[in-house]
Amino acid sequence: MRGMLGRKVGMTQYFTDDGRQVPVTILELPPNRVLQVKTQDRDGYDALQLGAFAKKEKRATRAELGHARGAGGPCRFVREVRLAEPGEYQAGQTVGVSELFEGVGKVIVTGVTKGRGFAGVMKRHGFSGYPATHGVKTHHRHPGSIGQCQDPGRVFKGKRMAGHMGAARRSQKGVRVEKILPDRHLMLVRGSVPGPNGGYVMVREDVGYVAPARA
């Protein structure tokens, strides 16, 4: 499976050759550095440990400096990308967006969603809330009853309630690649992807995507 690390730049619109307007997200995918090559014989699986966006040595730990000493220095964003079969890669080698994603139609974009803090049930789960009239006072956005009678006499785990919302790792599958700009290390994908502008993302080839049947 091919994959790269980068960050989300933002959203804009892209006009195709036939004049259609398409909403796209701009992903910056700079040349990734191979920090470590993991093999089936030594590690039990085939993978590449990639790094993106160089990190100042004074801001890196001694463990990071030692690990990346033979690969060109530490990076701010490091992730592993599994490989279906071992390839001819070496530590310190760089991979670019054009050589990995040329001809790829669908990708999986993984990022950390925007943090929303402590949210109520209406924002977090889409509850309708209480009526605005007919004697309702100060309970317009409350969740309502959450318990049962004497049996079972408790609240089941997983009950939809208020709590921390967002700031979770999410993957968007089946994201269509509209255009690749190799000279600027950019990829334009159709629609939105998880995370805020400037957030780190991991882009992988979606080899198992099946288009849904249209009615």
What does this structure look like?
With 215 residues, this protein is mainly beta. It folds into 2 domains: 3-116 and 171-205, Translation factors (Elongation Factor Tu (Ef-tu), domain 3), CATH 2.40.30.10; 118-146 and 157-165, no CATH class. The protein has helices at 40-43, 62-67, 97-101, 121-125, and strands spanning 3-15, 21-28, 32-38, 47-54, 75-82, 94-95, 106-112, 117-119, 163-165, 169-181, 186-190, 200-205. The strands form 3 sheets. A 6-stranded antiparallel barrel has the order 1-2-11-10-7-12. A hairpin with a 5-residue loop joins β1 (3-15) and β2 (21-28). The protein is extended, with a radius of gyration of 23 Å.
Question: Which tags fit this structure?
Answer:
single chain, 215 residues, mainly beta, Elongation Factor Tu (Ef-tu), domain 3, 2 domains, six-stranded antiparallel β-barrel, four-stranded antiparallel sheet
Task: Annotate the secondary structure layout.
Elements (H helix, E strand, L loop, with lengths): L2 E13 L5 E8 L3 E7 L1 H4 L3 E8 L7 H6 L7 E8 L11 E2 L1 H5 L4 E7 L4 E3 L1 H5 L37 E3 L3 E13 L4 E5 L9 E6 L10
Antiparallel strand pairs: 1-2, 1-12, 2-11, 3-4, 3-6, 4-5, 7-10, 7-12, 8-9, 10-11
Provide a short characterization of the protein structure.
With 215 residues, this protein is mainly beta.
Helix content: under 10%
The residue ranges in which pLDDT falls below 50 over 5 or more consecutive positions are none
Structural class by SSE content: mainly beta
Number of strands: 12
CATH superfamily of the largest domain: Translation factors
Distance between the termini: 32 Å
CATH A-level architecture of the largest domain: Beta Barrel
Largest sheet: 6 strands, antiparallel, barrel
Question: Helical element count?
Answer: 4
- Strand content is 35-45%
The radius of gyration over CA amounts to: 23 Å
Can you identify the CATH class of the largest domain?
A: Mainly Beta
Overall geometry: extended
- List the helices and strands in order: EEEHEHEEHEEHEEEE
Strand order of the largest sheet: 1-2-11-10-7-12
CATH-defined fold name of the largest domain: Elongation Factor Tu (Ef-tu), domain 3
Average pLDDT over all residues: 91
* Number of domain units: 2
